[in-house]
Amino acid sequence: MAGWMSLAVATALVSGCGAEGNGNKAAESSAPAGEEQQVTLKYASWMSKGEDKPTIAAFMEQNPNIKVVEEVIDGNQYSQLLQTRILSDDAPDVFLLPFDQYTKYANEGHLLDLTDEPGMAILADNPSVDEAFKVDGKRYGFMINSGAPVNPIYYNKKIFEKYGLTPPTNAEEFLAVSETLKQNGVEPLVFGAKDAWTLSGTLYSAMFRSYALPKTNKDIYYALAKGEVKPSDVIDYPLQFIGDLVAKGYISEASSTLTYDQSVQYFADGKAAMFPQGTWVPTLDPIVGADPAGFELGAFFPPIPVVDGKKYALSSGDRILVISSKTKNPEAAKALFNFFVQPDNLKTYLESQSLFTVMKGIDVQTVPVLQEYVNSFSSSDFEVVIGSKSALTPAFNKEVDLALQNILVGSTVETELKRLNEEFEKTKSQMVIKE
Amino acid sequence: MKMTRRTQDRLGALLFVVPAIVLFLSFKYYPLLMTLYYSFTDWDGFSGDYRFVLFDNFANLFTESKISGAFRNTIYFAVASIIAGTVVQLGLALILVNRLKGNRLFRTLLYTPSVISSLIIGLTWLSFFQYNGIINQTLERIGLSSLVRNWLADAELTMNVLVGINVWQWAGYGMIIYLTGLLGIPTEVNEAAALDGAVGWRRLRSITLPLIMPAVTVNMFISITGALRVFELPFVLTGGGPMNSTNTVTMQIYNTAFLSNQFGYASSIGLTFFLFIAAITLIQLRVTRRLEVEY
């Protein structure tokens, strides 16, 4: 009943907005007499460039009786659309989940208990990851990739060479490099800020985490949920840093309306010298196919704050593989899950996309351009914290996105901090806390 | 008991109507009633637990600046779209009512955008209005760099861009309605007006406009309801930004329900907005119908 009621209200609200529903077929299974049972699974993710296809294809080849139908849901609306699907009892059988919804869905009973699955064995070597993903002692998902604890800043070596610049190693050098580029008529930085995650998930998050972790006993979200700190106590520095970059004209004006894909092309075309982004960038087509006369990819570690001689970072998982508790084909879904997280398959998956993992037991080779950046993580002055006892709500994450977008188009840091404090209070009660 | 032929006919007719009624009740009235029900709760749209909060949601929406801002933005969009749209639509209709060469082609071309999804329209215009988009590139190429703007990231400008796109999209649709009204004016009325010396603006004001008021009534009704419910254009082009300057009520409902997980609150905003649109359109219908004349 609750599902029907939810669907009805969702329909009413969305029909007012003029949006259209997302038609799909239910998972089917049929067993023709005398034949092995054929099963169809729905697999959903936000991987719009076919990142999961090779793994899915290899699985289907090995399991000819299981057909996997892939559904790609727009990354910008993934959380909302997935929630609507789950509310209407139409969840995909197997799907990727962002970390901020993992505990909530597990608590609400929407995820299948995978505690004893063979694929989880690797967690024995990774107790900190295991602990971060346990909910009431049970495991409901596997962290496919950790998301880089600190995303790199890419730069165009050709432009740097032209102006005699070297990759900066701290904030002062970073600002000096940006100033030199600007003085020479080169746009220092570009973001694809129409897709807000490109702002909040790169330079900002690196600055934020390194600044806020030591202020919050290394668990920012728990401290926020408990009311030990306000957003403005931990967001002020990173927002101010971004605000200064905007005020000094170091961020390309095009950034505010560029999408993520367009920003990659913009950088590859040599229109901006630096590009804060994820570790997957070296494998992207525009980068691989860029004109070598004007473009050569380099990467450096972003200028995150140093607190008491130490740099901090957080890894909470980027793509978390889960199974719906409502799946009609749990065995087939588990087979796909275990295949996906099998170390050899996972290694291939991660390396093909230049993704980062903090899991021991998966020896991922780094692309050469990121080698120096990756080495930074093993230095003694660097500490990576795994997971958190809480997570920000999608609503507040959206507000942070908005704050950054607003600062990019001229809003003041003070205004945005005040707004963020107010908005945080509205949804703070929805934060799930694992004690 | 033998049924009369008339009863049989009625039952037959009813059978044909029942599926439509069932669908209509299921997908229109049931959700509407559930929206009403949830608007008095604090349901998060997810869990089975919720409390009845009576009128708290309605009280909150009148004090929250984000909601009042969304109402302001929506009203601005609607008023600007209707004023500019009426001028453009009526102007086009007055031009194309004459027997010009290529008349039908122009009508078809102008009407085409209205049958294209607003999402597609939004995505298409995005490539024009981005900072490095077609418009700015063209301005730079023809030496008008001073006119280059960040069309979709300027809080003072962006809503007007959306208004412009909306006016463009619906220009042909409204034009057809006005054209129908203009073609319905008897020739002898226009001839008599011409003989009496009523030409140009005077003829438009005193003869044409009063006689096409039924078309104005219909067009206004469609324009007001359409403009107030705008969602796709800001959703695709701006996401409600910059600085919430294009955040409309429908976007606010969507964000409140699906981002903030406040379904109960979103329902109350939706219901209030429904009443707001109903009130505005009722006023509009009364006003424009009074201006209609018999001939």
UniProtKB/TrEMBL annotation, chain B:
Pfam families xref list: BPD_transp_1
Subcellular location: Cell membrane
Transmembrane segments: 12-30, 75-97, 109-131, 167-186, 207-228, 263-283
Annotated ABC transmembrane type-1 domain residues: 71-284
Superkingdom assignment: Bacteria
Membrane topology summary: Multi-pass membrane protein
The keyword Transmembrane is annotated on this UniProt entry: yes
A GO CC term attached to the entry: plasma membrane
Coiled coil region boundaries: none
Protein keywords: Cell membrane, Membrane, Transmembrane, Transmembrane helix, Transport
InterPro entries listed in its UniProt record: ABC_transporter_permease, MetI-like, MetI-like_sf
GO biological process, one term: transmembrane transport
Principal location: membrane
CDD domains for the chain: TM_PBP2
Family: Belongs to the binding-protein-dependent transport system permease family.
Protein's name according to its UniProt entry: Sugar ABC transporter permease
Originating species: Cohnella fermenti
